[in-house]
Amino acid sequence: MADSGNAPKPSSSVKLVLLGEAAVGKSSLVLRFVNNDFQENKEPTIGAAFLTQKCNLPTRTIKFEIWDTAGQERFASLAPMYYRNAQAALVVYDLTKPTSLIKAKHWVAELQRQASPGIVISLVGNKLDLTNDGAGDGGGEEGAAEDSGDARKVTTEEAKTYAEDEGLLFFETSAKTGYNVTEVFTAIANSIPETSLKTARGPNASHAPSRTEEQRVNLNGPRDSGAKDSCAC
Amino acid sequence: MADEIAPEYDVVVLGTGLTECILSGVLSVKGKKVLHIDRNDHYGGEASSINLEALFKKYGNYAKGTEPWKQYGRMNDWNIDLVPKFLMSSGELTNILVSTDVTRYLEFKQVAGSYVQQGDGPKATVAKVPSDAAEALRSPLMGLFEKRRMKSFIEWVGQFDVKDSATHKGLDMSTCTMREVYDKFGLEAGTKDFAGHAMALYQTDAYLDIKGGAPEAVERLKLYGNSVARYGKSPYIYPLYGLGELPQGFARLSAIYGGTYMLNTSVDELVFEDGKAVGIKATMTGIEPEMKFETRAKTILGDPSYFPDKVTVVGHVLRAICILKHPLANTNDSDSCQIIIPQSQVGRKNDIYVACVSSAHNVCPKGYWIAIVSTIAETSANHHLELAPGIERLGRIEEQFMGPPIPLYEPITDGTKDNIFISKSYDPSSHFETTTDDVRDIYSRIAGEELKVEGLREGIQVAAE
Ligand SMILES: Nc1nc2c(ncn2[C@@H]2O[C@H](COP(=O)(O)OP(=O)(O)OP(=O)(O)O)[C@@H](O)[C@H]2O)c(=O)[nH]1
Ligand SMILES: [Mg+2]
């Protein structure tokens, strides 16, 4: 809103959480979406598991607050804070690794149990570049690719059917080439109901009167060092 | 799965209470490889926030076969703190939250008011604690002349500088007691009471006669004043969804710096070599089949419940958690507040605290208030009578949860010999300043240096995988 220039479009924040087995490419998808970048041998996520990126729709701007997972999911020890008020989730599997789809289904069930009822979930099969139908540069250098050059182990049909049954959005992507990555986030942005954007966050906020919004405090604001004059003690 | 647990960690942390989570967050950011375990299926240990159904089940105060929580809306809307505290908005926990950037996971709101009781029984007055000279002049807690004395006292506190003897009113700060300071300003007993207990937040009167104790008391008065000045209504802030969010925020900090988290995991054995703890044997349940594992640790730290033979009981807290359908009387219909009942007002040695929060902080459905009354036990029976002056402030109570006295533990040794560093139980003070003191104390014993949080996340190293 503080931006000068163009007439301001309504803008709202959406908390988006990422889930999926280790090394399926969760952080790589975020890196592609936020920085349009890819790293061949990306370290497991450390240090920055909270990123923001705007998504401009024709009528409004969605600011994604992206919560990457960071190891707490490894032994199923995610905290309620992680799901709290998440309006969107990206559940990622590696379409060259069938076990990762099983894990993805587990996370979908977990989200349906733990997260806010209206959450928009997108199932994402990543590493499409390693398959024959992969867009852009193929998986040529990847040793894992079979003779045919196709390392796909999860069919589009199987994952798509599952996604339809569970009411999930579904995409196949490549963080490496960038194929379909922006599309995932745009589709999510478009699927978030307008009504849930009006309130600040999640269902609980909706029955709090709007004036309570003002009372939120910004801890990062300047420390009151002038307290000497304004308040004598 | 078991192969994901490393053979050795720099630090194994037992229990996910706030003290433990701050430490594992800070140690992870500093590059230590941390394994953090809790026997429960949730974060927070003794200091978690739970829903009303879990609270009924914890206290067992309902007839078998009934489900009294069903009349209280959606259970997910309830986040009831087991240990009630507020953050001082200019206090050390706030400082740590900001320095570590954990603030990005949490939202805070002000606590609407800070109140103090004067007198006892039906004649008691509950009034806002004056935070500045102007409020002192309007306060019903003091008569006309006393107001003026209090005003000049508050003004003096504001410009007090321990290093500048010109601000010491001719008193020798190295030996001076706080009682002498109050007497210098001619303050009455009732005024000393609310200044010492509701502003400096001392829980007993012991501070009055400590030689050279005046500067600390003045600093505490300043912390109160600066905290009020920061946001305006009260010196306190409180996280949306309850205090249980705090340990979770620091656990996430630890995890993004490589910390490994395991809930549902009980410690079967501490492994010792030459009297020093060097590792643990543990079992993770809640999965099929359960997983037994063993790992070594350079340092082990945790809450008292993991080391029953290495801690001692130093007192007992009495606590009653009450569900109300109205705000507290005489608090200007506040959505949240604290009332301190100074000990001498009701013939006790320890203060009684009432902490009240409501749906404004997303801890219960709209129309409810959660009030928690606590104090230190002074008798061995009739504990409900000890809490009575606080309970009387609440009016009609829908549900009340009060268990036996809660023991307060402290470690017997400092950990330098056996390599085990144990936190203290959460005391009944109204804020987290003692918790962060404990964090700093444990950190310096482990690391051999003072904890410096400023700039912690700039130029950090990252744990090697
Ligand atoms: N070929 C190919 N490799 C990818 C793709 N996406 C990610 N990778 C690689 O897969 C590995 C793991 O990617 P990450 O993004 O770190 O995976 P993650 O799911 O965040 O992993 P954790 O943080 O450990 O849970 C890295 O070496 C990436 O370079 C992709 O679309 N195609
Ligand atoms: Mg990652």
What does this structure look like?
- The complex is a heterodimer of chains A (233) and B (465).
- By secondary structure, chain A is α/β, with parallel strands linked by helices.
- In chain A, 29% of the residues lie in helices and 19% in strands.
- Chain A is built from eight helices and seven strands, in the order E-H-E-E-H-E-H-E-H-E-H-H-H-E-H.
- Chain A has helices spanning 26-35, 80-83, 98-114, 156-166, 181-191, 194-198, 202-206, 227-230, and strands at residues 11-20, 50-56, 61-67, 88-94, 120-126, 169-172, 216-217.
- The longest helix of chain A has 17 residues, at 98-114.
- The model of chain A is unreliable at 137-146, 199-213 and 224-233 (pLDDT under 50).
- Chain B is of the alpha+beta class.
- Chain B folds into three domains: 8-47 and 244-311 and 410-447, FAD/NAD(P)-binding domain; 58-112 and 312-407, Guanine Nucleotide Dissociation Inhibitor, domain 2 (2-Layer Sandwich), CATH 3.30.519.10; 132-231, Guanine Nucleotide Dissociation Inhibitor, domain 1 (Orthogonal Bundle).
- Chain B has helices at residues 18-29, 52-59, 92-100, 133-138, 144-159, 178-184, 189-199, 214-231, 245-256, 383-391, 433-447, and strands spanning 8-14, 34-37, 49-50, 80-81, 87-88, 108-110, 113-118, 125-128, 236-239, 260-262, 265-273, 276-284, 291-302, 311-324, 337-341, 352-358, 369-376, 399-402, 406-411, 420-422.
- In chain B, strands 7, 8, 14, 15, 16, 17, 18 and 19 form an eight-stranded mixed β-sheet that branches. In chain B, strands 1, 2, 10, 11, 12, 13 and 20 form a seven-stranded mixed β-sheet that branches.
- In chain B, strand 7 and strand 8 form a beta hairpin.
- At the A-B interface, helix 2, strand 7 and helix 8 of A face helix 3, strand 6, helix 5, helix 8 and helix 9 of B.
- The structure holds guanosine-5'-triphosphate (GTP) and magnesium ion (MG).
- Chain A: Residues 139-148 have a biased composition (Acidic residues).
- Chain A: Keywords: Nucleotide-binding.
- Chain A: This is Ras-domain-containing protein.
- Chain A: Residues 133-153, 196-233 are annotated as: Disordered.
